[in-house]
Amino acid sequence: MALENKYSNKMKNLRAQLEAYQETVDKKNQYWQDTTKKLKEENRILRQEKEELANQITLQKEKWGDEKAWLLRSTTQKLDCLHNQHTLTIEELQRSRVNLEKVEKIVDFQMDLPCDQRRALIISDEITEKGITDHNAGVEKSNVTTQESETTELAQRSTSVVVEMEEAHNGLPQKKLLLEVKATLELVKGSLQKRETEISDLLQNGHWCNSEITDMLLTESTVY
């Protein structure tokens, strides 16, 4: 009887240990099942995010390609426009310089003449211009008397203008005034020639498309 009780107790203890072990195993199995399920879900989310990110990168590349092409076209057009403006500026400066040289030659010619001859030359020029205008207008020969009267009046008015010009400059000699005019013309011509040279060098050396201009254009064009 004692042996049977002893055996029964051992079986109970063994059964209790087995149940406890089974419970522990079940808990571990459940834990690993939950962990595996959680990791699979996280892996699925990561894959989805990876695909979305890859799609975004592809779209961004396409968008940047289009924007880069537009930016290059816009930059090229602006640089071409700038080059054309510089070219037109050079042409305008050259014309201005040529006109100044003509005026300078006239001033030099006036300086070499005595005062009386300068006055006579002014009067003669105005008379000639008046005669040409009247001829082109088809004035008839019967108006010769009237034309001579107008010419005399024009000569008197021209002489009066010369005298008034000399008096207006505080009585300075006309040659001194011409020297001042010539000096001013030299300054203006030098400034025009300097600007013309600067722009010519700018175009020839290719500095008109330097990094500063490119940076300015890039700043104006915002890329998202």
Describe this structure in words.
With 224 residues, the protein is mainly alpha-helical. The protein has one domain (2-220). The protein is built from five helices and no strands. Residues 139-152, 157-172 and 220-224 have low confidence and may be disordered. Keywords: Coiled coil.
Summarize the structure.
Keywords: Coiled coil. This protein has helices spanning 2-111, 115-136, 144-168, 174-204, 211-220. By secondary structure, the protein is an all-alpha fold.
Give the rounded overall mean pLDDT: 71
Rg of Cα set: 50 Å
Report on the biggest sheet.
none
Distance between the termini: 93 Å
Strand content: under 5%
General form: rod-shaped
Whole-number total of structural domains? 1
Keywords: Coiled coil
List its traits.
224 residues, mainly alpha
Write the layout of secondary structure elements.
Elements: H1 2-111, H2 115-136, H3 144-168, H4 174-204, H5 211-220
Helix pairs in contact: 1-4, 1-5, 2-3
